[in-house]
Amino acid sequence: MRRRLVPGLAIPVLVGVPLAMGTSWTVDLAAAAGGVLCLLAVLRASLSWATAGAALALLSLALARPDASSSADLFLLVAFGSAVVLLLDGTHLCDRFDGAEVAPILWRRLIGLWVARAATSLGIGLAIAALAPLIALALPPAWLPFVAGIGILAAFGAAVAWVRRSMGG
Amino acid sequence: MRPSPLLAPLSVLTIVALGLALAVGRPELVLVAVPLVVALLSARRLGVASGIAVTVVPSATTLVEDDCVDLVLTVASPQTAAPSIEIFLSLPDSFVFVDGARHLATSLDAGDTVERRLVVRSTARGRGVVGPVTLRLTDHSGLWVDEAMVASPVVIETYPRVPEIRHLPRPARTRSSFGNVVSARLGTGLEPGDIRAFVPGDRVRHINWPVSLRLGKLHVTQFHREQNADIVLLLDTLAETGAHPQSSVDACVRAVTALATGYLAQKDRVGLVEFGGYLRWLKPATGQRQLARLLQAAVSADQVFTHAVRDLDYVPATALPRQALVIAISPLIDERFANAVVELSGRGYDVVLLAVSAVELTRRVLPDTPLDDVACALWQLELGNRLQHLRHSGIAVAEWRPEEPLDIALASLSRRMPARAVIR
Asked: Which residues of A touch B42 (CB under 8 A)?
C-alpha cells in the first residue's frame, strides 16, 4: 500500500505550482479538480484518471502562468513536467506491480532512471532558457511565433521518430 | 513487441502541453513538456520475451493436504538484457503462497540467471497444474512490452489427509485367503470358537484339558479362522454442498481414504465405486499399489450431476463381489443414492452406510440469518428421519459430522464377533 502512494508525491507539485502562480478562481477550480482526479488515480492505480488529472493540472497551469519568466519559474515548470511524468509512470507501475514481489535491483534501476530523466529535463530546460533570449534578440519579433511553432513540431517529430526507431530497430 | 498503456497518455499530455503553450501564447510552457519528451525519448529497443528461459521445478509432485512444496523458479536471459521482467506463475487457487508471490518482478542483464525458491502450501486435494509461466518484458521506460508464455506445466497431485481410525466396520463374510478378520469358519486361528469331542487326527495341543477333566472325555477347542475380506467403498458424487476444500464430497473422500488405508493395512482387498454423474470403479485388490490407485481415484473424485438414473448393474461382479462388505459414504442429498443402497441391501450385500452430515458444512457458507438457521435445523431433522428409515430397512447406519473425528462415528458401527455358525 505504501508503494502505491509514491505517485502521490506529484500531487502537491501539480496543484501547488498553478496555485502559486495564479490567483483567479478558474485556476483554483481547475487545480482543485485536477488534484482530486490525481488523488483518485493514485488510490485506484488508474492511468486513465491520472491522465485526466494531469491534463486538468496542465490547463490550470496554462491559465495561471504569468507573463515574465525567471530562473525560479524555469525550475518550477520543469518540476511540474517531471511531476506529470512521475504521476503517470508511478501509477502505471503501481498497476503493473499490484501484488507483485519486486526485486530490490529493479527498484534501484527505476529510481536511477527517474533521477536521470529529471536531471536531463532540467539540463534541457536550462539550455532552452539560455538560448531563447538569444534567438529572440537575433530574430525580428514577427518571426518568433513561427520559430516557436517550428521548434515544437520539430521536437515532437523527433520524439515520434525516436520512439519508432526504438520499436522497429 | 507492442506499446504499453503508458505510451498513449504520455504522448497525449505532451501534445496538450505543447498545444496549450501555443494556444495561450506563452512559449515558456514548452518547458513543462520537456520531461514528457525526455520520457518518450528514453524508450529503448526491447528483446523478445520468448527468448528468456524459465523453468519451474517442484520439490515433490505428490503431496498430502496442507503439505508445503518448494518451487524453484529459474529465469535466464542468455542473449538480451531484460530491464524489467515480470513473471506470472499460474497456480490453482488451492495453492497458497507461504514464501513468495504469484507475480514476481525483477531485472536481468544479458547472460544473467535469477533463481527464486517459492514455498506454496496445498490446501485442498486435487490435481493441480503449475504453469505455464507468463512473462512480460518491459523496457526501461515502460513504454514497450513483449509477452510470452514459457515453461511447460507441471502436475502436482494433492492427496487428502488421512485421519487415523481404529474402529473399522467388521465384514460379515470373509474370503478364503489369510488375513486379520476373524471369520465365522472354524480352522487355524487364534480366536477360540467351538469345543467338540476329540477325534483321531486332532492335535494334542488343541485338547481343552479343563473341559476334558470335567466331562471325563477328551475334548478339543476349535478356533476361528483369520481371513481377509473384500471391502467396496461406494462413494456418492451425485450431489455436493459446502465450499471446497470443506465440501461434502471432500469430507466423503477423506472418509474413503481413511477406510481404504485402514482395511488395506489389515490385508483386506479394497475396491471403490464412484456413484455419480460418471460411474467409475476400481476392482478390489490389496497392497500398497492398490492404495496408490485408490488415492489417485480419490484425488480426482468430483461431483458431476446428472438427471440420468445410475444403476449399479453396470458395475461388473468383479468390482462388486457378492461377499464384499459395501461401505456407502454419502451426504444423502440425492435420493437416488439412498435407493441404490437399499437395493444393494435387498440383493443380500452386507451394506454399511456412513452418512456424512453436510448441514454444518453448508451452514458455514451461508449467511448468518434466522431463515437459514431454521432451514438447517429442518434439514438436520429430515436427515435424522431418513437415517431412521434406512435403519428400519436393515442397513447399519452411522452419522458422521465432519467437524468430529471419524473414529467416533465408526465406533458406533462396531459389530460383534461372527456367530458361531460352524460350517463343516
From this structure: 113, 117
